């Protein structure tokens, strides 16, 4: 299963067959966003978003920043180096 974390019901996904650079997809009923991780130390950066309000994107980005080390470790486990 590609879901590596959850943020208030949103799925944080790293697809096994995805491309570099290191990034995550955040998926919810309202929409989907993709954030570059800038591993190993961040900060995450919004690349694109569909359906989320700006306040949602900001909340998601803040949550991802707090788990950047774990997200980068998950990316490395699935894909190797960044």
Structural features, described:
This protein is α+β, with helices and mostly antiparallel strands. It has one domain (16-79). The protein has helices at 54-66, 68-79, and strands spanning 3-7, 10-13, 23-27, 32-36, 45-50. Strands 1-2-3-4-5 form a five-stranded antiparallel sheet, with helices on one face. β3 and β4 form a beta hairpin.
Decide which structural class fits the backbone.
Answer: alpha+beta
Spatial strand order of the main sheet: 1-2-3-4-5
Q: How much is the average pLDDT?
A: 95
- Summed up, the domain count is 1
Most strands sheet: 5 strands, antiparallel
Considering DSSP H and I runs of 4 or more, what fraction of the residues is helical?
Answer: 25-40%
Q: What is the subunit organization of this protein?
A: single chain
Low-confidence stretches: none
Topology as H/E string? EEEEEHH
Give the overall shape: globular
Strand content: 25-35%
Number of helices: 2
Rg calculated over all Cα atoms: 11 Å
Number of strands: 5
Separation of the first and last Cα atoms: 21 Å
Give keywords:
alpha+beta; 82 residues; five-stranded antiparallel β-sheet
